[in-house]
Amino acid sequence: MSERYGNSFAKFFPVLLKTKGWKLKAGILHKGYQGKRILEFSLDSSEEAFRFMREVSGYPESVSRDYQFAEEKKGYGIETGMETEYEGQPVERQSVAQEAETDAASEVFDSAFEQQFASLSFGGWDVRREPAILKAGRFAFVPDFSLQKNGIKVYAEIVGFWTPEYLKKKVEKLKEVKEPVILLINRKLKCSEKDFPAQDVIFFDRKIPANEVTQVLRKYEEKKLAEDRSRIHEIEIPLSGEMINLEKIAARNGVMLEALKKVLEERFEKIQEPEKSEVREKFEGYRDSGKEHENIGKYRDYRDYVLLENYIIHRQLLEKINLELEKPGAAETYADAVKIFEDFGFDSSLHYPVLEHLKYRVIWAGLSEENAKIKKIPDR
């Protein structure tokens, strides 16, 4: 274990002492004048000094949230250079993948590559340092980072130093990890992609390839997008009121906002294009026959609304805004229009889209909103 892992283990060790039949084996990274060496260290509960440790006061009843992990019948230990096996009492508030809400930017890093990774941007993904303890069979695996976005969580592990024994153990543990892990491997290690079982392996030289990592993450986004779109098709989204916030609907249903908007765009297109819309044709047919169909009723509501940015807005509300804009002297500049929008509770993301929908054009004369004129585009 390195100094960083040693500090982490020190916080967990008191709880380990309170269990029965525990064993500890650690590989300690020692940096001396001869270079880096791994020293072996082993310890177990049979030592005389630990016989009465469970009765000693002062040890915490449960491990810190950042360092909890669950045990099964055989138990498992932390993979970060040390192995632990024990048969003891369950640790309170067990968790196989216990979250550690640690901002990567504020951490002390074990290598320059890890520090470099934490400083990179991956298209809106939130980077967390040593975010969880993942189950890896009888052992546990602590990845270097997690990347989170839109409810998606992917882990990243940087492999920059290894021995044949270390690599063998790393591979064995990664085979047992169920969560998605991106491996970033220093090309100087002279190992190949086939040595690692992870789905996503990226080799690098001097710099972490941010673009390649982003491409892998985009694959997970596309997978989640497809899954969410399939789910949304089964979700009923009733339309009521003057303005509907899609961000709230997406959050309530646990789906990506982008997926929700894609499905809604398809629904609006179907009902608003009579020549191309099978649904619209069915609606007209049922209406002429005096019958009603439950799906047709749902789509019929969409005819009264417009999809703009992250909102669905009733046409009557848009007409009210249009009447305000058309009042003489009420909206000669873009700043005037913004004031009207704010009076109706519209946020800034809707200002331009609403003007375009109502067929207004903004004529800019510099960067000031007060100097920008708005002009109604005449119907042809």
Instruction: Give the overall average pLDDT.
Output: 76
Spatial strand order of the main sheet: 4-7-8-9-10
Our measurement of the CA-to-CA distance between the termini, rounded to an integer number of angstroms, reads 75 Å
Most strands sheet: 5 strands, mixed
Q: What percentage of amino acids are in beta strands?
A: 15-25%
Class by SSE composition: alpha+beta
Molecular structure report:
It comes from Methanosarcina mazei (Methanosarcina frisia). This is DUF790 family protein. This protein has 380 residues and is an alpha+beta fold. Helices cover 35% and strands 20% of the residues. The protein has 4 domains: 3-85, no CATH class; 104-223, Trna Endonuclease, Chain: A, domain 1 (3-Layer(aba) Sandwich), CATH 3.40.1350; 233-303, no CATH class; 313-380, Orthogonal Bundle (Arc Repressor Mutant, subunit A), CATH 1.10.10. The protein is built from 11 helices and 15 strands. Helix 7 (278-289) crosses helix 8. It is elongated, with a radius of gyration of 30 Å.
Task: Tag the structure with descriptive keywords.
five-stranded mixed β-sheet; elongated; alpha+beta; Trna Endonuclease, Chain: A, domain 1; 4 domains; 380 residues
Write the layout of secondary structure elements.
Layout: H1 3-17, E1 23-32, E2 35-44, E3 82-85, H2 112-119, E4 126-129, E5 134-136, E6 139-141, E7 145-149, E8 152-159, H3 164-176, E9 181-186, E10 200-204, H4 210-232, E11 243-245, H5 246-253, H6 257-272, H7 278-289, H8 294-302, E12 305-308, E13 311-314, H9 315-326, H10 334-343, H11 351-357, E14 360-363, E15 373-376
Parallel strand pairs: 8-9, 9-10
Antiparallel strand pairs: 1-2, 1-3, 4-7, 5-6, 7-8, 11-13, 12-13, 14-15
